[in-house]
Write a structure and sequence with these properties.
The protein is α+β, with helices and mostly antiparallel strands. Helix content is 29%, strand content 26%. It has a single domain (12-164), classed as 3-Layer(aba) Sandwich (Aminopeptidase). A hairpin with a 7-residue loop joins strand 3 and strand 4 (77-85). Bound molecules: coenzyme A. Coenzyme A is lined by residues 31, 33-34, 82-85, 90-96, 122-125, 127-128, 131.
């Protein structure tokens, strides 16, 4: 990829298909902050959870993505599992567009809350979710998520649960 922001060009946003599973997995591996998972997980997401996932594509390559699902115990929410943008494509609003388009999607329109867990040290991620909450005009609240010792003794920071919403006023 060379230049992202020509006068009329920018990434296209769309739901993933199974063919996106492997490129998505490769992109996650490029983004070393993100937990590494098997390629199979991304195939499942692209096949079974495509309604709550989006990819950003530029010149035939994936430059960003958001993966999410509707938690069975909180059907009024979309939980954002991972959101990432290729290092060379950052700070151009792509991640925020991904979140806003997810909320505007058919599945998103049924949700009252957008959730994610975020590590206290991940300033970019925290700023991203606050910026999305501001753009949506919805409050952002922080709850207990996963503690350090939930991570099987791995050197993994705690993850706080962020909830943005309600996204739509009743009536
Ligand atoms: C977090 C991440 C997805 C942001 O992607 P991005 O496309 O660069 O973000 P955007 O350009 O849409 O910016 C959204 C907001 O976050 C802010 N932001 C982005 N990167 C930032 C950084 N490194 N430090 C501080 N603020 C940052 C932007 O200024 C913007 O806020 P504003 O509208 O108030 O100015 C990207 O940095 C990334 O892929 N990081 C590694 C993966 C990760 O940590 N994912 C989140 C946890 S799953």
């Amino acid at each position: 990829m060379t230049e992202l922001d020509g006068p009329t060009t920018g990434p296209a946003f769309r739901k993933p298909t199974i063919s996106d599973g492997a490129p998505l997995w490769r992109l996650v591996r490029e983004i070393d902050v993100l937990d590494d998972n098997s390629c199979y997980v991304y195939l499942l997401l692209c096949r079974d959870f495509a309604d709550t996932c989006l990819v950003a594509e530029f010149q035939g390559a994936l430059v960003g993505f958001v993966t999410g699902y509707v938690p069975p115990t909180r059907p009024d929410s979309i939980f954002v599992w991972q959101v990432g943008v290729a290092p060379q494509a950052r700070r151009r609003g792509i991640a925020q567009q991904l979140l806003l388009q997810l909320v505007a999607s058919e599945a998103g329109r049924r949700a009252q809350y957008l959730e994610a867990t975020v590590s206290p040290s991940n300033a970019a991620s925290r700023r991203l979710f606050q910026a999305a909450a501001d753009a949506l005009g919805a409050p952002l609240n922080v709850h207990r998520g996963f503690d350090r010792d939930h991570f099987a003794g791995q050197d993994h920071e705690e993850e706080e649960l962020i909830r943005i919403g309600p996204l739509r006023k009743a009536g």
